[in-house]
Amino acid sequence: MGRFLTRLIDAQARWARPFGDFNHRWLSALFRPLGPLKDFLHGRWLGHPLHPAATDIPIGILGMVIVFDLIGQPVAADVSLVAGIVFMVASALAGFADYADTDGTARVRATVHATLMVGALLLYGLSLVLRAGEPVDRTVPFVLSVMAFLILTAGAYVGGDVVYALGNMVSRHAFRGAGTKWLPLDLDAAVELPENTPVKAKLGINTLVLVRRGTTLHALHDTCAHAGGPLSGGTVVDDCIECPWHGSRFDLATGHARRGPTVYDQPRYEVRMGESGWEARRAAD
What we know:
This protein is 48% helix and 16% strand. The chain is α+β, with helices and mostly antiparallel strands.
């Protein structure tokens, strides 16, 4: 069943890919001057992506609309519908912020997810309009709510696939061990690193980005926590290093996220000069 649904979703790429690219352009232009608002919608203040945390609220409320209609509580159903629409719109704003920094297959499936959700929202809006007239027969508004909830459920399935199957907005370091052992750093001790310039270096199976600032050598993991971009290909901005893919910024001294779309901190490493050259290890959080 799961493979069939995946093939069904991927079959939408013919229209979802160009539509997603179009949406990416206008959303990027919209959010570009709204950095603090975009960070808020990503959930950087929460330390967790806001959109998936917010989606359960409207789904639960809108499920109760059907229950209240079935047990003959029209006022409760209508109030729940209004609340569900409000929370659905709020959740969609957070989703669009994430969507603006989504690429590849994840963007295609996110486009299918967003299209289904907008379709459900329109049906819910039509149901609300029909309910506002206080009709004696509420069959049509009820049927519209049921149809909208089915579409909403399908959209939630696709959205879950974007996160759980493709790892969108998942920390790239979630399963990386802390490590406490000093390991040799592939860095020529005789060569002085250029100041404020990212340099890539190997530490065992890991790749680090090094930035020298005066006599201090800062080291972070090279893979951006947001989407896996190479920080060594980025730039130093103030006291941060900026990812070249989506512009996430991490404090060089602490690894803390300073600007989204990342909501996760970057692993930081300690560096020292050992007996046989440079050594490094994962710093304690």
